[in-house]
Amino acid sequence: MKSRRTFIKAAGLFSAWSAVTPALAESFLTTPPQMSVMGPEEIGFTQLPLSYSYNSLEPVIDALTMEIHYTKHAAGYAKNLGDACMAEKVDMTQVKLSELLGRISMFSVKMRNNAGGHYNHEFFWRSLTPFNSRNPNAPTGEMLEAIRTHFGSFENFQAQFNDAAKNRFGSGWAWLIKTADGKLKVGSTPNQDNPLMDLSELKGIPLLGLDVWEHAYYLKYQNKRPDYIAACWSLINWEIVERRFKNA
Ligand code: MN
User: Fold this and answer.
1) Domain spans, the chain
2) Cα–Cα distance for residue pair 18/231, rounded to 1 Å
3) Which residue has the higher pLDDT, 133 or 148?
4) Ligand 1 centroid from CA 184, angstroms
5) How far is the CA of 141 from the centre of ligand 1 (A)?
């Protein structure tokens, strides 16, 4: 009974995609069902409420920046993603956003920018935790071990991540990812691209992402992007990053 349900679900996914890509069906039908519990974090097509208030990231990120970022920029990506899905016949009730990103080269630039923009922001909000001056905010346990294994030390990892975020020319994101061969890697993507996209140079499962668009920091930091990057370390929700690492 379970396998029949799985098949029906997969067949539904097939029909949802078939307008776009008949060839895709085979890969879904041959993917073992247990794969769905591992892999990239699932983020839906709609904008979720924040789990903290606009001012709870102060003094690192000011309340006005958060409010504009969430209600204008991020909300815009979510709305435009819905419009693009409608226009390009993607059934948002059947297709996972992470799967859409994995096939993004088949869609329009509008889809690429807004599917990425929406995913990246939902992912980013969850990666942060309210500012607490008593919280040392560093990884522990398996996450810390993995960082030491791949980067030598937490400080080396931070230095690499800072460089990736600083050196991304123009708008984009810095990432910590887990690659297909199980390694941790730091890098960046332009605009609203992300490492789940088939056309991304940096490819893997995102564990941590930092928005380095000017809209993320300009009100408080103006042109001083490195100061914003340095300050953001105190906001990272390492519990979530570690959970992503274990599930990836
Ligand atoms: Mn942003």
Assistant:
1) 61-248
2) 46
3) 148
4) 24
5) 30
Q: 235 alpha carbon to ligand 1 midpoint, in Å?
A: 16
Q: How sure is the predictor about 154, in pLDDT bands with cuts at 50, 70 and 90?
A: very high
Pairing of strands 172-178, 205-211: antiparallel
Q: Does the pLDDT at position 119 exceed 50?
A: yes
Give Cα separations from 34 to 91, 104, 231 (angstroms): 23, 24, 39
How many whole angstroms from 157 Cα to the centroid of ligand 1? 23
- Tell me the β-bridge partners of 177: 185, 206
Of 6-20, 99-113, 224-238, least confident by mean pLDDT is 6-20
CA of 74 to the centre of ligand 1 (A): 7
Give the CATH number of domain 61-248: 3.55.40.20
The whole-angstrom separation of Cα 237 and Cα 67 is 20
Query: What pLDDT is recorded for position 25?
Result: 38
